[in-house]
Amino acid sequence: MYTIPFLDLPPLRAALGSVTLPGSKSISNRILLMAALAEGRTEIHGLLDADDTQVMLAALRSLGVAWQRDGSVVSVQGMAGRVPQPQAELFLGNAGTAMRPLAAALALLAARDGGDYQLRGVARMHERPIGDLVDALRGFGCRVECLAQEGYPPLRLHGPSSLRLDQPVRVRGDVSSQFLTALLMALPLVATRDIVIEVEGELISKPYIDITLALLARFGVVVRREGWQRFTLPAGCRLRAPGVVHVEGDASAASYFIGLGSLAAQGEPLRIDGVGRDALQGDVRFADAAAAMGADIRLEPNALLVQRGRWPLRGIEWDCIAIPDAAMTLAVMALYADSPTLLTGIGSWRVKETDRIAAMATELRKLGAQVDEGDTWLRVHPLRDWRAASIHTYDDHRMAMCFSLAALNPLIASAPVPVRIQDPACVAKTYPEYFETFFGLVQADAADVPVVCVDGPTASGKGTLADEVARALGFWVLDSGALYRAAALAAQRTGIDWQDEAAVAALAATLPLRFLGGRVLLDGDDITDALRDEAIGLGASTVAALPSVRQALHALQLGFRRAPGLVADGRDMGTAIFPDAALKVFLTATAEQRAERRHKQLISKGIPTTMAGLLADLQARDARDKTRSASPLKPAEDAKRLDNSDLSIEASVQQVLAWWAETRPFTGKD
C-alpha cells in the first residue's frame, strides 16, 4: 500500500555469521537459453530467482518454450533449434544477459527459418550499445533493424535471408564480452560447417567467456579456441540437454560479503557458501584483490571464509578487466584504506546498467571522499571525515549493494554517520533478498539503531499504523501489546503454571517472537488467532502481575532494536521502553470513534456486541491506563500528537513518514 524510495542504514560496527549465495545471474541466463535451444529436457537446480531471470523465462514462454517450476527446480523442454512461435514481441527489462544472446539466436533462426521478432527493454537498455553484435549478425546475412537509434535496442529481427557462414565473422571484444558470448551460444543452431569468430581488439571480461565455453561443453558443444582472438564452432555441433545441471552461487554477489568480512569480521570469519576455489566464475578472483588490500581469506572448494586482516586496508592499484562487476565493491572498500586505490580496466562500466564510473564518483563524493576519474579508471582516496549521505542508485542493483558497506563507517570514521540507500528495491534485478541477508549478518550499537514509537489508547489504530510505517521504512516491528499474551500462551504450551514466576520469567526472556504484516509468529508458528482466546487473556493478566516477568519482557522488547530500525507500538514505548527514540508519535481518537471502529471490526467477524457496551469498556480502560502506577498512559514530552479521528490510515502513515523525514540528518537535494 505504501512505498518509500529509500532505506536508512544506521552506523554498523561488526559482522558475524554465514551466507548462502543466490544462483549466478550470468550462469542462470546462459543455462536457460541453452536449455531452450537444445534437444531434450534440462532440469536446472539453484536457478537465480530475480528480475533478470524472470524476464528471460517470460521471453522463452512467449516464444513457445515449455518450462515449469517445482520448488527450487526449473525444468525446460528444449525446442531443438526450432522456435514454436514465428512472431513475438519480447520485453527484456534491463537484462543484458537476456537481450544480447536472444538477439543473436532469434536473428539466426529468423534468417534460417523465417520469423519476425521485436526485442525491447527499459529506457536504459535502449541506451546500452549493441551495434557490434548487430554488425556481426549482419555479417552472417541476418536481417537486423535498430528501430530507434542505429546500434541500440529496440531491435527487429526478421527473415528468411541467406546465411553466409563460409567466412570468419569479426566482433569487437573491448566493449562487452556479452557480444561474443551471444554468438557462441547461438551459432550451434546453424553450424552446418565450421564457423569462425574473430575478436577485434582486446577481449575484456575473459572469465565470462570461460563460463560460456564451459557451459557449452556441458551442452555438448566444444569450441576450439586460439588464444582470445579466434573461436571455431565445429561443423555439425548442436546443443543437447545435459539432463541435470546445477547453478553455482553468484560470485559477483559474493564480493559484497567478501568486502563485509574484510571490514567487519573480527575473531571469527564470515562464511560465504556457494562459490569457492572450484568456481567457474572469474569474479571469484575478487578475493585476490581483497587479499591484496589486507583481508584474511581462505578458499574451500565451494565456500569462502573471510575476516579482517590488515587494518586499515591497504590502498592498491588493480587491473579489474577480469572482474568488472565485482570491482565496484573495491571502490567502496577503498574508503577504508590507508592510501589511494586505483582501479583500471573498467571502461565497460560506462555501458552497464548506468555509467558506473560517473555514478560511483558522484556518490562517493557525497560521503566526503576525494575521487578522480578517467575514461577507463577510477582513483578513490581514503575517507575519515564522513558525511551522512543519501546514495542515488540509478536503478542499478550493484550501486545499492556495494554502498551498503558505507554504513560500516564507524570502524574508521572520526564520527559515525548513517547512510541512506535510495530505491533499495533495485536489488531485485539479481538479489531480491540482499538487504534481509545483509541485516542478518551485521551488528550495530543499540543507541545507533533508530526507533519510531507509536503509543496510544486502546483501539486507536496504533498496531495498524505501526505495521504500515515499518513496512514503508523497511524496519522491524514490535507489538508490545501481544507480549504478555504470547508469554501466557508459551507457558501454557510448555506446561508451566502461570503463577510460577521464575519459570514464566525465564521463558519470557527468550520468547522467539516476530511480528510480520499484522501477524504474530512464535518460533515461526502463527499464533495471532490463538492470542485472542479468552483463557489466554486471563493468563496474560496473571503473568503481567509478576515483577520478574515484567522485567524479562522489558529486556525482550529492548532486544527488538536491531538494524536497520524498529517501529514499536504500545502504551509506554516512548516513555518507558525507548525514551531516546528518534520519533515518538502519540496516536489517539475520540472514545466514540474508537468504539465505532471496534464495533465494525467485531461485527465483521461475527462477534455480537453493542456500541454502548464497547464505549463504556473503552472509557473504563482509558481511566485505568491513565492512573495505573506502572507506566501510566501519557504522551512523552517530545511526542508528536496525531488525532486520527477523521484520518484514513493512508493519511496517518504519510504524516508519520513526513515527521520521520524531519528527523534524518541527510541534507541537500537527493
Radius of gyration computed on alpha carbons: 29 Å
Gross CATH architecture of the largest domain:
Alpha-beta prism
Q: Helicity range of the residues?
A: 25-40%
- Overall tally of domains: 3
Shape: elongated
State the assembly state of the protein chains: single chain
- SSE-based structural type: alpha/beta
Strand order of the largest sheet: 27-31-26-32-33
The end-to-end span amounts to: 24 Å
Strands, total number: 33
What do these coordinates show?
It is a single chain. The protein has about 675 residues and is of the alpha/beta class. The chain has 3 domains: about 5-20 and about 250-440, UDP-n-acetylglucosamine1-carboxyvinyl-transferase, Chain, CATH 3.65.10; about 25-245, Alpha-beta prism (UDP-n-acetylglucosamine1-carboxyvinyl-transferase, Chain); about 445-665, Rossmann fold (3-Layer(aba) Sandwich). The protein has 21 helices and 33 strands. The chain is elongated, with a radius of gyration of 29 Å. The model has no long low-confidence stretch (mean pLDDT about 95).
